[in-house]
């Protein structure tokens, strides 16, 4: 194809790898959207810094969790995960979970709002909390 020719209609020359599903977004996701997606996807397993880094290159998960707590009102539980200790005197990474089913619903609404703004369909995640609403 010459430089001055237009791309044929219906051509699939633009491949976008920033999508979470098969629809075409209008822009790349925000970091907070990627964090919410990973947290909800992991469900009752929770998430640690190394898992967030391998999932979407998050280098400051504790900051993102703090932002979700204080700015968005989503509750989290955190516990040191001793499985993440590799060296003798290394401090363990915290594992974060959504505190209750109400927090899961808030996180899901926020994620779907971000996705909607980008022209993507909603996602659904089943509850993993106990009937009393506390984390599993």
Summarize the structure.
By secondary structure, the chain is an alpha+beta fold. The protein has helices at 31-42, 49-56, 61-70, 101-117; strands at 76-81, 93-98.
Write up this protein.
Helix content is 35%, strand content 9%. With 136 residues, it is α+β, with helices and mostly antiparallel strands. It has helices at 31-42, 49-56, 61-70, 101-117; strands at 76-81, 93-98. The protein contains 4 helices and 2 strands, in the order αααββα. The protein is globular and about 45 Å long. The model is unreliable at 11-19 (pLDDT under 50).
Q: In one word, what is the shape?
A: globular
The residue ranges in which pLDDT falls below 50 over 5 or more consecutive positions are 11-19
Count of helix runs = 4
Strand order of the largest sheet: 1-2
- Record field, number of beta strands: 2
> What is the N-to-C succession of helices and strands?
HHHEEH
Category by helix and strand content? alpha+beta
Separation of the first and last Cα atoms: 58 Å
Question: Could you tell me the mean pLDDT?
Answer: 82
Percent helix range: 25-40%
What's the main sheet like?
Answer: 2 strands, antiparallel
Strand fraction equals: 5-15%
Radius of gyration: 19 Å
What's the structural blueprint in terms of helices and strands?
Layout: H1 31-42, H2 49-56, H3 61-70, E1 76-81, E2 93-98, H4 101-117
Antiparallel strand pairs: 1-2
Question: Key features?
Answer:
4 helices, alpha+beta, single chain, globular, two-stranded antiparallel sheet, 136 residues
């Amino acid at each position: 194809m010459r430089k001055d020719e237009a791309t044929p209609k219906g051509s699939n020359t633009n491949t976008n790898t920033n999508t979470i599903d098969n629809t075409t977004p209008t822009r790349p996701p925000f970091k907070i959207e990627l964090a919410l997606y990973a947290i909800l996807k992991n469900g009752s397993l929770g998430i640690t810094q190394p898992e967030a880094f391998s999932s979407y290159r998050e280098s400051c998960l504790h900051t993102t969790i703090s932002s979700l707590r204080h700015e968005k009102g989503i509750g989290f539980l955190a516990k040191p995960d001793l499985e993440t200790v590799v060296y003798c005197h290394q401090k363990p990474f915290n594992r974060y979970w959504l505190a209750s089913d109400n927090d899961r619903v808030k996180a899901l609404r926020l994620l779907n709002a971000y996705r909607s703004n980008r022209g993507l369909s909603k996602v659904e995640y089943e509850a993993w909390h106990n009937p009393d609403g506390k984390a599993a």
